[in-house]
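Spend some time on this chain, tokens included, and walk me through the fold:

. . .
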Amino acid sequence: MFIDPTRWAYNFPEMGTSWSDWQSFIGLMATDQAAKWIGKGLVRAGLGANPYARFALGLGTVASQIGWTAAMRDHETSSEAMDGQSQRVLSRSMDRNADMNKALSEISSYMQASGYDPTMFSDIEKVQMALAYGIKTGDPIFDEEVKESRKGLA
């Protein structure tokens, strides 16, 4: 699963994250490493004992890490909102007796035409695709639920 690089994009959602979360996490690690290198550079330059230099380095590190952490939390909150919205669309569609087989089949066709392997995605992820791209499925109930759910996002 993790050995084939062409499958990595499909594995990210299964690990509970997204590429933007990975970017934030990598940025957080890079900031920490950069602070260590700068600290060593200050020592080599004879400024390691300078309290102002150490304070500035510490303040910069804390500020950047707070920024990266806030970005990661923002991505997480957005993901939770999308999950909730998708679940509502799916639940309401099923409660109103939408033809979910037809809707999911149309979404799968769209995904395949777009270069995705629909077998790699759960039904809720397919609903998220329909929400994100406004996919018309031909099922009037499902399409109406998608349309109604998108009204509050604009």
Remarks:
- The chain is about 75% helix and 0% strand.
- The chain has one domain: 18-151.
